[in-house]
Amino acid sequence: MFLFYFSITLAVASSVLYHFSQKATPADVNPAVAIMATYAVALCLTGIVAFFIPTKIGFLAELRQLNWASYLLAFSIVGLEIGYLLVYRAGWNVGIAAVLVNVVASFLLVPVALIVFKQQLSRINIIGILVCLAGLVMLNWKR
Question: 22 FRET partner, CA 20 to 30 A, in 6, 28, 82, 87?
């Protein structure tokens, strides 16, 4: 039960810090340089974390077990990083941009969940999706 709550708390706290730091990145810094510095620190931090989550088969054996998904994840992360950096530089509101991206991405993932992962949607899930879409309209409503 600890992992259940810890994991979502970590994800939420990290997301808040992520958007705060993206918005606070100086506008005159080259986005690629900013992301490279971020990844250099991230590489060091994950190296430290690896000591606390030891492998049973060894680091190199773990690397050999990776598939295409890890590499696709790298492309998506770079796209997210540069995308959000440019979104905030373009003047988007921190709260609106994050909600917009996450709701639209979630909406686009529904067919993936149904077709690729064979997951099911209940009536209440469908109602929730419609509420989120209504929320997007309200967030972008011009007064």
Answer: 6
